[in-house]
Write the structure tokens for this entry.
Amino acid sequence: MTDTKTWARIKSPWVLHFNSGACNGCDIEIVALLTPKYDVERFGVKLEPSPRHADVLLVTGCVTQQCAERLKRIYDQMPQPKFVVAIGACACSGGVFEGNYNVLGGVDKVIPVTAYIPGCPPRPEAILDGVVKLLNALNPPKQKKSSKQVEAPKEETKTIIEEAKPIVKQ
Amino acid sequence: MSNNKIDILNVVESKLGSKVQIQPGHLSTGSIIANNGLHREVLKAMIEADEKTGIIAISGLDLGENLGVYYHFRTSNALVTIKTEVPKTNPIIQTIIDLHPGAAFHELEVTDLLGVIFEGNKPEGHFVLSEYWPQGVYPLRKDVKANEIKLSPPQETNKPAEDPRQVKIIIGPQHPALLEPEKFSVTVDGETVTKVEPRIGYVHRGIEKASESRTYLQDVYLVERICGICNSIHAAAFVEAVEKIIKVDIPPRAKYLRIVALELNRLHSHLLTLGHAGLEIGYETLFQYFWRDREPIMDLIELTSGNRVYSSLMAVGGVRRDIRAEDIPKIKSVLKTLRGQLPFYRQIYTDEPTLRLRMKDVGVLSRKDALALSVVGPVARGSGVDIDVRKDEPYEAYAEIPFKEIVYKDGDTWSRMNVRMDEVEESINIIEYVVDHLPSGPIRLNLPRSVPAGEAVNRVEAPRGELFYYVKANGTDKPDRVKVRTPTFANLPSFLKTAIGESIADVPANFVSLDPCFSCTDR
């Protein structure tokens, strides 16, 4: 049963995009992913409008004070297991806007982040690579695994996930 | 440029005489110092003399003892700044929204960020700042430090009882039709929209304040990141304003290279919007087609600047990179392919019945309203108002380049999208002309990092319309004040007007025809 669940998760992750105060650079690159040149749907990735149906939350932007509360609320609405990908320098650390009066600086100040994709903005290939790495991390390792490992990929996987430990514990 | 040239400064002088102080040639056409409520008299005289008088921006400045409120106005052939000052202890000034309704949002922004109270235009709650923002703290004042602000819980307000027949539909902050977080409360009676209340500021990053603590060199990168779509234009507008303060003329080759970057920006931005409009009306194939053809333009931006999105090409005194001679055939061949696609798209926009049904006579903005609300760019040109900074006040080398100004008369969504469609072709023409006529010579001047004290205004034509910068330098390597007025901020009031009385189903198509970009709107 767990195998089937993991298989389904990897083969068709539904992603939700939330802009927490980005400049549109990363956002447009995410939209570009859906278009013919990059066509992320061939990996089964579908952009989903509702947080209640989404598996992966793609967050862009430096998290402004007004967005922080909404970001948390959207994260809470997503069903378990859920993954957060911070896209762009702003989402990773605040980027060029760090220290501004209305900016928290980084998605991990508000919600736990599973994977970070740096860049200003990251190229569509980089976003694609990050999402595929995240999906591969869900893939059960060769030895026996438990469902817990699938839900929270941590030590076993040798991907960028390993470096990107969430600051806030789930 | 308009044929009947009106000397607006003479008009003001003959009406008000010695009551105001006129400085011709300062800040573009001229500036007028009008204190003690005289700014209204000056504006009245200007509106009477020229129907195209429209507000560009209101810059609020912290001048120490006083707060400066600078009104920047455009007329058919001039850019005039009316300067007033109010004491910090009692910062009250009379509103101008009864004379010019387009100023409403500009005034609210100054109230929220600088604490100037406009009598007759009182905000309900915050305009761009968070609801947790402490009362009485105004971020653009010099004594406010970014890291010392303590947030407080929002105050409870008693909302008036609502009519049960009126249903409120909340669009945003997270909504499938919006790529960006912004909230619109649309009140509907049945299917008809009766009221639209925007809540902006979700993307407010405080860039104007941040630019005061960074050097001019760093600010080029910072203002570029106001918007990821029209980034070159922001950088160009800023460096041009700084060059005006230094009083330096950049080499001709740099001017031409800047135009290539600016027009490539316009091309990809227009293709993006034309496709996005398809998505909003449920015509996803059109979206995929446009975005397929947009990718080669992104490749050209990468070819000419080294980066796909942020070109970082602009520098004070010129540009950073030259175009290699061997790249020019590649640029031309990509543009030729795109030109070949245009008849197909134009046919879709003119003949496709679904598209016409969703766009024709939707969101009609009359010429009179367009002037009163002071809209800019394709929104104004779709309503028959011929304003284009590239023609009205040519910057860089636009005066030397032949191109047409596109104007449609109907003022509906369809006209606005067709303005963009025709501008795609004009942009292709401009780039082809520029790469054929590239002058030789240096591409950048070496200038000192400190900028002499002074102030300058600059406006350029961004893909979404007139983009305005006001830069004040104090003689150091950091600016004293940078005011940015983006075209989307100026165009937003028109949506609140045109949406009323329409079906709720037409809201997305109408909205996307303004080419909304909230990262620009909020800064």
Observations:
- The longest strand of chain B covers residues 54-62.
